[in-house]
Write a structure and sequence with these properties.
globular, alpha/beta, binds FE3-S4 cluster, binds iron/sulfur cluster, disordered N terminus, Rossmann fold, binds S-adenosyl-L-homocysteine, six-stranded parallel β-sheet, Transcription Regulator spoIIAA
Length: 468
């Protein structure tokens, strides 16, 4: 997932992200792979560890604790972990006996899926912790640091939601003016290609009271844009003061918070797009006109084999309804090519859907058979060369659409949230309502403010603009 046009990442992104704050006490280095939820979890782990006196470092060499927060979504993502462990083992060996030993932990979805195997194959690993055990992280880390090998892969999502320490104000400020907020975790959909229901467990929603409180804390730390996260974020459900809410209704509540100026949510499943969400898109100004709504494939036969629970026509109709509610809505998606049994004609159906919908951005992948998923057991696996050819065709089209979308912005005025310094002095990078990066002249004091700009240039990955 690297063809995204902004600094954002999305579910399944295999790039890694590390954050750091200088300091002198015990140091932790967290390397994050995978989706936004891992980014969010890594931040929460940093917050939890900072309560124990850990500070972050962006140098693995000087860390006392290294955590690899891993992703299991495709084979390539999972393989990276074992090669990284190999490299860290050497560092660990160098450090043994220096009086500054290194503790190595593996967290995230590979930890959940392959925890036992990691323990068996990689003696350098001191700690394995699945995504729903992080509320016990400090305890596990201190055990691991004292020489005990710790493995935790229980599904304790309610405890995680209830017991993780609150967002730390100082780190929230350091992280910037746009933030993630997990509202839901897990997945009950069981798409036949996907490991997530096994690594993240069943769908569980956080309570609205907790979500609203966290949104206010983020706002107090200067956050202006919040992206609500969930593996199936639009399956979120909760109760507030005796009223049942779905995600659309939650968005109405969050929009009431002064200072939170923009809201987004990701990732949605087409079968959970409730009418209230469409109403929110129509009526809530703070809800941005950008929706990540993966379809994966365009042929009804493949959609059925993937267990996606909807047809191609239903998806197309849904997109039309969304655009009726919010005419300037930009749609983004995920696609898989070469699912077992996918024929040339099936693939052509996917291309047709892309042509009909026109995407502002998208992520696309070759099908990767994952152990334990029904798809991996199917006959008629598609040869690698065919997958590569199809991916090329599909990505060329998606790229063309993304460039067209960005070029169509030239001459338009829009409000952008100034997010960070640009590459050159006197330049800032802002975020458009459609999640594009916008380069504009400005000074660092303006970060966190909204300005109105006119777009002067639309490139493949970003826009240039001047003040309107
Ligand atoms: N919950 C989200 C996405 C989770 S994973 C959703 O339902 O859309 C992110 C993306 O990775 C998926 O949308 C899919 O396109 C891709 N993906 C998941 N499993 C895959 C596999 N086995 N091979 C290739 N791509 C996969
Ligand atoms: Fe995976 Fe499907 Fe669940 Fe998304 S909806 S996380 S693709 S099983
Ligand atoms: Fe990867 Fe787990 Fe996210 S498998 S995409 S890190 S939910």
């Amino acid at each position: 997932m690297s063809e995204f046009s902004t600094t954002e990442i999305t579910a399944g992104d295999e790039d890694l992200h590390s954050t750091a704050v200088p300091g002198n006490s015990r140091k932790v280095f967290i390397k994050t792979y995978g989706c936004q939820m891992n980014v969010y979890d890594s931040e929460r782990m940093e917050d939890a560890l900072s309560g124990e006196g850990f500070v972050q470092t962006n140098s693995m060499e000087e860390a006392d604790l290294v955590l690899l927060n891993t992703c299991h979504i495709r084979e390539k993502a999972a393989e990276k972990v074992f090669s990284e462990i190999g490299r860290i083992r050497q560092l660990k060996e160098r450090r043994a006996g220096t009086g500054k030993p290194l503790t190595l932990g593996v967290t995230g979805c590979v930890a959940q899926a392959e925890g036992e195997e990691i323990m068996r194959r990689a003696p350098a690993v001191d700690l394995v912790a699945g995504p729903q055990t992080y509320h016990r992280l400090n305890d596990m880390v201190s055990k691991a640091a004292s020489g005990e090998r710790v493995i935790a892969t229980e599904f304790e999502i309610e405890q995680k939601f209830a017991q993780m320490p609150q967002i730390e104000r100082r780190s929230a400020i350091a992280r910037g003016v746009a933030a993630f907020l997990t509202v839901q975790e897990g997945c009950d959909k069981f798409c036949t290609f996907c490991v997530v229901p096994y690594t993240r467990g069943a769908e569980v929603s956080r309570s609205p009271a907790q979500i609203i409180e966290e949104a206010k804390r983020l706002r107090d730390a200067g956050v202006r844009e919040i992206t609500l996260l969930g593996q199936n974020v639009n399956a979120w459900a909760g109760t507030l003061e005796g009223r049942s809410l779905n995600l659309g209704e939650l968005i109405f509540e969050l929009a009431e918070i002064d200072g939170v100026e923009r809201l987004r949510y990701t990732t949605s499943h087409p079968i959970d797009m409730h009418p209230e969400l469409l109403t929110a898109h129509r009526d809530v100004k703070k809800l941005m006109p950008y929706l990540h709504l993966p379809v994966q494939a365009g042929s009804d036969r493949v959609l059925k084999a993937m267990n996606r629970h909807h047809t191609r026509a239903e998806y197309i109709d849904l997109i039309a309804a969304i655009r009726e509610a919010r005419p300037d809505m930009a749609i983004s998606g995920d696609f898989i090519v070469g699912f077992p049994g996918e024929t040339d004609a099936d693939f052509e159906d996917t291309i047709q859907v892309i042509r009909e919908v026109t995407y502002a951005s998208a992520f696309s992948f070759k099908y990767s058979p994952r152990p334990g998923t029904p798809g991996a057991e199917l006959d008629a696996q598609v040869p690698e060369t065919v997958k590569s050819e199809r991916l090329q065709v599909l990505q060329d089209l998606l790229k063309e659409q993304q460039i067209a979308f960005n070029k169509a912005c030239v001459g338009k005025q829009m409000d952008i949230l100034l997010e960070k310094r640009g590459r050159k002095d006197g330049q800032l990078i802002g975020r458009s309502p459609w999640l594009q990066s916008v380069v504009v002249d400005g000074e660092p004091e303006e970060i966190g403010h909204f300005i109105r700009v006119r777009v002067t240039h639309g490139g493949p990955a970003s826009l240039l603009a001047e003040r309107a």
